[in-house]
Every structure is written in structure tokens, then in C-alpha cells.
Amino acid sequence: MHDSRRMQRQRQAKKLSEASKSNFMYNSTLQQYNQVRNQAKLEMCRELDKMPIGRIQIMRIWRRNTHLTQDELEEQNFRRNITSFCLFFRHRDWELHFMKEPDVMLKYSIALCWLVYCGLLAIQLLSKDPRYHYWYIDGTTICLLTLVLIVSWYKKLWIMYVSDAEQSLPQNPISLYLYKASDVMQRKICLRLAIYFLVIASYCAVTAMQVLDCGHEDNQVDEVKYEDRLFCFHPWILTNCMTVVIGMTFLFTRIPFIIKTCLSAIITFTYALLVVVEFNYIYASSPSTNVNFNAEYSHILLIFITLGIFHLMERQSEFIAKVDYSWKRQLLKKQDDAFITNDTIKVLLKNILPSHVADFYLSNQQQNELYYEEYDNVAVMFASIKNFDTDKIGLRVLNEIICDFDDVLNKYADNIRVEKIKVANWTYMAACGLDVSRSEQVNAPQMKFRNVSLMPNGRRSRYGGSRNSDPDPNLPGGVHRVPHGNGSNIALDLELGQYEGNVITNAPRASGNGPSNQRRSNEVVLVMAQFALDLMRTMRRFNAENMQTEYEGSTDYGMLRIGISHGRAMAGVVGNSKPHYDIWGNPVNMASRMDSTGVPGQIQVTEKTAVILRNFNIQCNYRGMTFVKGRGNIPTYILGTDEHYNAFLKHRPDAGDTT
User: Any idea where this protein resides (predicted)?
Assistant: First the structure.
């Protein structure tokens, strides 16, 4: 018994706990909902307060500009750009462009005008018997309005029901003429004004026909004939028709606000004079809106109230349209500025990086990603200017020289391109063959280099096999072929110890091994040699024009010393900030050594590069065994040139030449 009671109590306590918990969750959710709703309401009120919707703010006149918020300052600046009464832009160009904006709602306005005219015509026919000659006026007017209606709707109807993907314009001449007329009608302000005046004139004509048969002789006050004069026309029917006409003057959206205001005011005052002067006895006899109010004034008050209401509504619409147009111009200006900025960024980026690398970063928007390329044959050049002291000469001279070199570089932008790598002190570095179409592999963004394991010395390792590999007999001494973990054998001409890691490739080597493919691949060496000769001629011309009296005792002052090598290399962009496109590999090191151990005024190349140049019938003279750091004594060659730095095209073997 006690156990059952205890279990019943536990059950009740559990139900109460769950009920309180659910009630708490409900209250908490409801409270959060109320908070979100109140916050959204406050945000909506703030945004509505920011909108310049033409409200009159008298108190702001007395406020100082120092107390205005940013939104209030923007609204104040906009109000300064627009006139108070006519709502014209103070900039004439803005107003002209605003009026030339196409009216996409014109066809709907014309359709409504046609229906309203039919209603006014029906009122005229039902209120009294029209004279016979009125049918000519009504028929002509309804035909004109119907023609305008058909032309205005022709383009939209043709696009909706006739046009297809293959036929963008009508083929029939008449149909094409109506199509273009419909398009021009929306775009030309002159045609819109002509249609607008035609519609208002038609309204005024069909309304005025109700009083045309009331002659001036009927205006005499005669109690006997009062009943006859009473049925000349119905005053309140005419007044209501005039209110419709006044409202229709404000219907068209892309008609200047001042024209609509002036035309509606003319119609209103003309009708007021008609009420007070011409047919005052008829209006005085009509029912009044108030027993203590004169009937004539009731008619006048109604049309003036109608004018005021439509004027304020149109003023608000015009103001909002001007605000939208102003924002549109600001948006277009910001877009133009953004395009200019984007183009400037592209130009700057392509001046820093090669065009294909810059396009990669611009299109993929990669951040903190390694980008690299692997090339089978790249020719590298180092060109150093000898005996120029920056402290004595200054950067202006260096800038002029480098600019001259860049002008020469621009001539090598087609076919096999020469790429400027960097300028270090008085040394100009360039490479040929860095074309992404010639690359064996370009890295894929999905490769996560951040997950690479670190070696004990802190460097990332990508080795998949042992470093103890046999030397390759086809490669220079001290260079080993490194096997990759994925089984692909990609031979890199790397000095032993130059890299502590390598990159896993996802595709096997695909370079051609035929004689024609090999010769095409070696053309980069020929192009680089031609570029080096052009730099020699450019530097000689610069010295002749600017350095005639400097260091007359020095024979190598301002002379260019160039080193060239070629082979397999890798190129890419590393680091998170200040991206720089650079190349790595054995040809970079050897070209630097050929430059540092070279002869001023000469182009020194390695033995492998000399073999390639001789295959292109360019003379390379054996210099001798030259000590190169990290390699020891190796054979080097000097490119054979005449005094104008034109390469000799015939090879003459020298003593000690081992090639």
C-alpha cells in the first residue's frame, strides 16, 4: 500500500515537473518571440524615419547642423539638390536625363484613359440628346485614342503571344513599324507629351459638349422659362466629370510635374469662372452640400479640394521618383567607381603577378592557398649592372634603366613569353617558358597543404620514399632522381639538399619526347638569349646617352653582365601577405652563378645551355673551367657576339672544347 502511494506521488511529481518545464519552455519561446518582434518593429521604424519621403519638418529649420545625424545630413543634402516648388533637380543634366527615362507604365495609363473617356462619353450621351455634328468630334476622338491604345500595347502583346527565342523582331514591315513605334512611344518625351495633351483635350471636349447648346440668350433671368433653363445641363454631373478630368491630368507618371500642375490648375480656374460668371444661375439653383452654404461655392470647393488632393499625391509620387532616380545615379556612380577600382586592382595585380596567376586568384578568390606550377624546361636569366652605386647615382637612374628593360620585355609578350620575376638591387631576373599551357602540372585548390606533416627541423615534408636514391646518369653530377610516394617518377634537376620536400603530383608526366617536341621545348633558351642580347643593346645605348662623362677611367662602368641557364623548375606564389611570384630549381641557382662568375659585357651560359644554343646555330665560345659555389669547377661558355651585340650564327670549335 505504501509502495503504491509512493509511486503515485512520484508519478504526480513527474507530471508537475514536466508541466512546469513545458510551461517554462513555452513562456521562454514566447518571450523570445516578443523580443524579436519588438526589435523588428523598432528597426522598421528607424528605417522609415531614414527615408526622405517628402514630409514637412518645420522644427528642423531651427536645428543646427552639428546635431544632425548622418541620415538627416544625407536627406538635407538631397533636399538642397531639388527645388521646393517645382521639384526640379538643380543640376540641369539630371533633370533632362530624368525626363528622358522611359515610361514603362505608359500603356497602362493609356488603357485607363481610354476606359475613362468611354465613361465620360456615355455620361454625355445619357445626360442629354447631343446634336448631330457632335458625333464627328466623338468619333474622331475615340478613333485617335483607340489607335494610340493599340500602338502602345503592340510591343508587349507581340512579345507575349508571338515572339519566340529565334525571332526577336517582327518580320512583317507593318508589324515591325508598329513594334518600333510602341518602343519609341515609351522612350521619347515629346511623344508622351503629345499623347498626354491629346487625352486631356479629349476629356475637356467631351465634358464641354454638355454646355455647348446653352446659348448666351438663355442666361437672362426669367422665372417663366426657369424650368427650361434648369434642364440645359446637370451641374453636379458636370462637376463630377471635371473632378475626373482633374484627376486624369495627374495619371501619367513620366510627364513633368510642373506641366501636370499647371494644366490641372488652368482647368480648375476655368471651370470656377464658368461656375461663377457664365452659368451662375444654373449652379445657384442646384442642390448644395450644406444648407447654409451657397451651391456655387460647393461646386468650386469640390474641384479645389480635388485639385489639392491630387496635387499632394502627385507631389509625393514625384518626390519619391526623384529620390529613386537620385539613388539610382549614386548607385551607378558607385558601380562605375567599383569597376574602375576593380580594373585598377587587376592592372596592379597583373603587374605584380603573371596574368594567368592573377586571373587564378581573381576568379577563385583563394586565401592562404599554395599556388604552384611545374615546368619541364624553363630558361632563367640574371642580368647585373656593374659598378653602379645607388648612393651616388640614385634610384632615378635605376628606375630609368629598369623601365627600358621592361619596354624590351613587352616585345616578348607573344608566343613564347618572357616573364619578369623581380629586381634585386642592380640585378634584373627574368624567365622564359612560364606558360601555363606548357606546364606539366598546376596545383588543384582541393589539395590541403596545411595538413602536411612537419619534419623535426620544422619544415614540411612531402617525401613518400627514401632520400637515398642512386644518381641519374642523365642528370648533372650530384643530382638525384627522387622517387615519389604515389609512384610517379618526376625528375627534378634539383641540387642535393636544395629542398627538404617535394610536391605530390596527381598526373603522370605528359611531355613529349619526340625530336620536334624537344626542339619546341628548347626554343625558350633561344628566346631568352635573344632577350639578353636586346638588354645588352639597350644598356649600351643608355650608357652612350647618359653616362659619357662618368667614371671615364673605368672600362666596365655601367656594363651588363648576364648569366643564363635552363632546366626543370617550379614556379608559384607562397605566403599569406604581399604575394610574389617566384621560381625555384636548379636553373635558378645556375643562372645566378653564371651571372656572379661572368664577364661584364658578356653573356655566360652553362654547358647544357650552350648545347641547346648550338643546335639553333648560335655560336657559344668555350671559356674554360669556372669555379661555381656548390658545384666546383664546371665548363662555362660565352655567347659569341659582335660589337653591336649581334649573335654569331656559325660555331667555331675552340681548344679544350669537350662538347
Answer: Membrane
H or E segment and range at residue 51: none
CATH number of 367-441+518-546+556-639: 3.30.70.1230
Number of helices (H), then strands (E), belonging to the chain: the values are 18, 9
292-322 core/surface letters (b: 16 or more CB in 10 A; e: else): eeebbbbbbebbbebbeebbeebbeebbebb
8 A C-beta contact, residue 600 and residue 617: no
Angle value at C-alpha 241, between 215 and 316, nearest 5 degrees? 135
Return d(Cα 395, Cα 381) in angstroms, integer.
23
User: Whole-angstrom Cα distance, residue 125 to residue 130?
Assistant: 7
Q: Taking the CB of residue 203, how many other CB atoms lie within 10 A of it?
A: 23
Residue 366: pLDDT above 80?
Answer: no
Q: Pick from 573, 586, 204: which is nearest to 357 by CA?
A: 573
pLDDT in tens, 145-198: 999 999 999 999 988 888 876 667 888 889 899 999 999 999 999 999 999 999
Helix (H, G, I), strand (E, B) or coil at 568: strand
- Following DSSP, what letter does each residue of 108-126 receive, concatenated? HHHHHHHHHHHHHHHHHHH
- Strand 603-606 relative to strand 560-573, pairing: parallel
Domain edges within the chain: 92-212+232-324, 367-441+518-546+556-639
The string of pLDDT tens digits covering residues 297-342 is 899 999 999 999 999 999 888 888 888 888 888 888 889 998 898 8
What DSSP element (H or E) covers 145? helix 134-161
